[in-house]
Specification:
By secondary structure, the chain is of the alpha/beta class. The chain has 14 helices and 14 strands. Helices cover 42% and strands 17% of the residues. Strands 2-9-8-7-6-3-4-5 form an eight-stranded mixed β-sheet, sandwiched between helices. Bound molecules: pyridoxal-5'-phosphate.
Length: 414
């Protein structure tokens, strides 16, 4: 009855069964996986949105339907200026609006691949890539990011990436900074990756939804955006993705975009073809487009509030883990996530991530994600377990949850 692309296993996993049971029993949950900012007690995003909606209610353009397949010109001007401030140089003509970043991926996969073609995606990373590729008839093939204990950073394993390329490979996706590792791609890796993509005629797709959330002052080790240098001679066709779900913490607007860059004739042809794809759906809500310039102009307050929370929660977690031998907070450059590493006993197997997560939920009512959801252990350290936490929860929730996490992880590490 159903297509192969929709033949998923719909059965619940153990964690969601336990979660449902806990909810059904009316027991409390400290949710340290919460990454929906509208549930984390921030005030700036809602204030910004409310003010924009009040003005929109008086805007006569709100009553008209004026579709533009690439997106409202004023919204595209604001997006081009936003990326200009990050170090890129796009014009509004290089921008195309989409209904969320997932739609941006779908459009690009339709543009770049035929059924059974392949796109390379980072591992560990965002678990949606397999679904996004398969729904367009493509295959998502992982390449490895490795945590280097010597330099304490995540780096692309370019050799594994090159080994994963074949004649059906059409694009390489990078997440800059990556989620959940929080690592920006290093400049040295980018130049190798650009050469490889140009040589093999692969498009480079850079998901930069978390680019504004660097934890420390800019370092010369990575570019703020892959739009910087993307128009230089010899660079590959490049697409940068971003959207308001992270830049403005307003996921309910379902508003994102693609910026095209690279060799001008190829870039312009790609954008013209993307316009046909977008015109087929015209999925982007007109009202969101009208308020986007005002929202982007107000992003500083939103990002400051979120960064303050993320830094504070991270610092608390680092302090709490430092008193627990066998546990470590992995370093990150940016983003909304933290990764805890839990070492096994010397010579023994790593602690069981599912058992740790189940004990935290059943015993302490604390919800975290096991590292295997993101393929963490095989790339970070096979002898350890990993847990992934969101850094967005309100401090009282976070502190109470982390207390139990530290206790249970330290017991497992003994
Ligand atoms: C790397 C990455 N890209 C995109 C998204 C989702 O963006 P959107 O809400 O615009 O679809 C997420 C959500 O967590 C993400 O982690």
């Amino acid at each position: 009855m159903f297509a192969r692309r929709a033949s998923w296993d719909l059965s619940q996993n153990d964690l969601s069964r336990r979660l449902d049971a806990r909810r059904a029993a009316g027991l409390p949950i400290l949710d340290l996986t919460e990454s929906n900012p509208t549930r984390c007690e921030f005030s700036s995003p809602a204030r910004l949105l409310r003010e924009a909606l009040e003005r929109l209610a008086r805007d006569p353009n709100a009553e008209r339907y004026l579709p533009d397949a690439r997106g409202d010109p004023a919204a595209r001007r604001a997006i081009a200026a936003y990326h200009g401030a990050q170090g890129g140089a796009p014009t509004p003509d290089h921008v195309l609006l989409t209904a969320g970043t997932s739609e941006a991926y779908a459009h690009l996969f339709r543009l770049l691949g035929d059924p059974a073609d392949r796109v390379l995606v980072p591992s560990p990373s965002y678990p949606l890539f397999g679904f996004l590729a398969e729904l367009e008839g493509l295959e998502a093939v992982p390449y490895m990011l490795r945590f280097r204990a010597d330099s304490n950073e995540w780096r692309i394993d370019i050799d594994s990436l090159e080994a994963a390329c074949d004649a059906r490979t059409r694009a390489v996706v990078v997440v800059h900074p990556n989620n959940p590792t929080g690592g920006f791609m290093r400049t040295a890796d980018l130049s190798r990756l650009r050469n490889l993509c140009a040589r093999r005629e692969l498009a480079l797709v850079s998901d930069e939804v978390f680019a504004d959330y660097a934890l420390d002052a800019p370092s010369g080790e990575w570019p703020g955006t892959l739009l910087a240098g993307a128009d230089a001679a010899g660079a590959p066709l490049t697409f940068v993705l971003s959207g308001v779900s992270k830049t403005l913490a307003l996921p309910q607007l379902k508003l994102a975009w693609i910026v095209g860059a690279g060799p001008a004739p190829l870039r312009d042809e790609a954008l013209a073809r993307l316009e046909v794809i977008a015109d087929t759906y015209l999925a982007v809500n007109g009202l969101g487009q009208l308020i986007l310039p005002e929202l982007l102009a107000g992003r500083a307050a939103v990002q400051a509030e979120i960064l303050e929370r993320v830094r504070r929660n991270r610092a608390h977690l680092r302090r709490a883990l430092s008193a627990r031998p066998g546990t470590t907070l992995l370093p990150a450059d940016a983003g909304w996530c933290a990764i805890i590493r839990v070492r096994g006993t010397p010579g023994g197997p790593p602690p069981d991530e599912d058992a740790l997560v189940a004990e935290l939920l059943d015993g302490a009512g604390v919800l975290v994600q096991p590292g295997w959801f993101f393929d963490l252990s095989s790339n970070a350290d096979e002898k350890s377990a990993h847990l992934v936490l969101s850094l967005l929860p309100a401090p009282d929730v976070f502190v109470a949850g982390v207390d139990a996490v530290c206790r249970i992880c330290a017991d497992a590490a003994r």
